[in-house]
Amino acid sequence: MNKMCRSLVAAALLVLPTMAVAQPEIPVEEWKGKTIMLVGAHPDDDSMSQGTLALLKANGNDIWIVLITTGNVGTQDPDLSRFELATIRRQEELAALADVGIPEDRYINLGYDDGLLEFEDKKEVVGKLVRLIRKIRPDVLFAFDSGPTYRRWHKSDHRAAAYLTADATRVAMWRLLFEGQIIHEGLKAYRIPEFMFYDSPEEAINTWVDISDYAEAKARARTRYVSQFGPGWDKYEGPDRTPEEQAADEKQALEGLEKVDGKYVEGFRYYKGFPDSMGK
Ligand SMILES: [Zn+2]
Known about the structure:
This protein is an alpha/beta fold. Helices cover 36% and strands 16% of the residues. It contains eight helices and eight strands, in the order αβαβαβαβααββααββ. The structure holds zinc ion. The site of zinc ion (ZN) has 5 residues, from helix 5.
């Protein structure tokens, strides 16, 4: 679907919220008091949803960010070591989260290496995600969209994160899987009731969130990923910028955000139901 078609679909969904597509009963803009958990592969994957996260945080929802890798190979700068890059990306992530109102104690990184997530021990990664799902007990899970039929080509870590997260949501509800967490750690099996899949195939998006009031926060947060978005990808020269440079970066980031009918939006595939059938 080209950008114009996408805009038309987005416009239709904005004006016709009662269309026969799965959407939250209560609009996302009105959610309050929910526990939200986002799972991503890298420290910046959440930037796709940060307008919605800023909105939800401001409305009194509790938001947890769980990222599986440290992002320690995502650079073309030959002078950065893995340790340096992982450290930089933690700082970037925390700065961006601060911009959208999410504190450091809500950021969890599982510490895996960037770039080869699909070759990691799946049972181990799923077990760690299951533990967090059982601890945090989210009302809504934000995750990479594996596609409505679970057949979707993402770049590798995103593909792995999509499937590992979907698998973990199913495992978490079965008390005899990873039962050690239940017997020894006092956790309980848990079924996540609602899902917001991000980075969805364009034709699968069924829910558009109006993030207009939080677009500036999202744009500001995006400028924190200096090592990822911009010249820092090739040559990292630190996070410091003059106020003028910062303002110019924020303006450019704002101009890059998706807009429909004068409103800034983020699109998701919303799903409510049993994790075993969430692709249908
Ligand atoms: Zn990523």
